């Protein structure tokens, strides 16, 4: 298994566990990740999902060749379809998802970070459009997610210059919410889980739903949905 899945204290912990392969998203790994996310978001015990990667990389993105022996168009399209399912699961999830990045997040690995609701990173984390030695072409999900996260000009700068940014710059750009010391990573992750899960879970889920939908709804529809959600919140508080 290249993806570890555990549940405890309301938290589903999903770990990309192919450290030797830098957690590349092969077809098999992408399918395991998709299945883990499905399980997490249908488990009544879970209020928050924490996604991490083992080893020196969070994930270096897609690698069709390692799954099939040939990275031709058909293999790449099959892998892209599954990775897109993963990203759609993150977007439509009923539980908030936190990415914990300690190492390189490149290509679709960066897409995973952007697909989560929040991200925290250690000072060792770096972020790039592509992994070293790979074509400087945006990986699956990036051309949709990155401009929305940091704006068109920053996205183009990162893509066209093929620049790698460190954790502090990623924080300045809003890619990550916190930069923490590596030895305090678990403590900060647990603190963040506590702030958005447990008794806060209902409000957190409603807030993420409203904000996620603003790209696809009109201002009037958003206002009506906000009003309905506020009314439900007031009823719950009575």
Describe the structure.
By secondary structure, the chain is an alpha/beta fold. The protein has two domains: 3-196, 2-enoyl-CoA Hydratase, Chain A, domain 1 (Alpha-Beta Complex); 201-237. It has helices at residues 27-42, 64-68, 73-92, 108-115, 142-150, 152-160, 167-173, 185-196, 201-213, 219-237; strands spanning 3-8, 11-16, 48-53, 57-59, 97-101, 104-106, 118-122, 126-128, 164-166, 178-180. Helix 3 runs parallel beside helix 4 (108-115). The model has no long low-confidence stretch (mean pLDDT 89).
Number of strands: 10
Largest sheet: 6 strands, mixed
Q: What's the overall geometry?
A: globular
Strand percentage = 15-25%
CATH superfamily of the largest domain: 2-enoyl-CoA Hydratase, Chain A, domain 1
Number of DSSP helices? 10
What letter string, H or E per element, gives the SSE order? Answer: EEHEEHHEEHEEHHEHEHHH
- Helical content band: 40-55%
Low-confidence stretches: none
How many domain regions? 2
CATH level-3 fold name of the largest domain: 2-enoyl-CoA Hydratase, Chain A, domain 1
Q: What's the architecture of the largest domain, going by CATH?
A: Alpha-Beta Complex
For the largest sheet, list the strands in their spatial order.
1-2-3-5-7-10
Termini separation comes to 47 Å
pLDDT averaged residue by residue:
89
């Amino acid at each position: 298994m290249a993806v570890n899945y555990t549940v405890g204290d309301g938290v589903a912990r999903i770990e990309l566990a192919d450290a030797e392969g830098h957690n590349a998203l092969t077809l098999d790994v992408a399918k395991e990740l998709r299945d883990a996310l499905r399980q997490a978001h249908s488990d009544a015990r879970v209020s928050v999902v924490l996604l991490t990667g083992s080893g020196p990389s969070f994930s270096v993105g897609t690698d069709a060749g390692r799954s099939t022996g040939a990275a031709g168009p058909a293999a790449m399209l099959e892998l892209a379809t599954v990775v897109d399912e993963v990203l759609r699961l993150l977007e439509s999830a009923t539980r908030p998802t936190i990415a914990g990045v300690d190492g390189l997040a490149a290509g679709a690995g960066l897409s995973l970070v952007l697909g989560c609701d929040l991200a925290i990173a250690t000072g060792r984390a770096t972020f790039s459009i592509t992994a070293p030695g790979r074509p400087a072409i945006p990986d699956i999900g990036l051309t949709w997610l990155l401009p929305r996260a940091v704006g068109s000009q920053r996205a183009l700068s990162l893509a066209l210059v093929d620049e790698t940014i460190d954790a502090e710059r990623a924080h300045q750009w809003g890619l990550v919410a916190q930069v923490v010391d590596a030895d305090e990573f678990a403590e900060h992750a647990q603190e963040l889980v506590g702030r958005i899960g447990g008794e806060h879970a209902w409000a957190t889920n409603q807030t993420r739903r409203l904000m996620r939908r603003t790209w696809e709804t009109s201002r009037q529809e958003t206002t009506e949905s906000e009003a309905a959600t506020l009314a439900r919140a007031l009823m719950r508080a009575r």
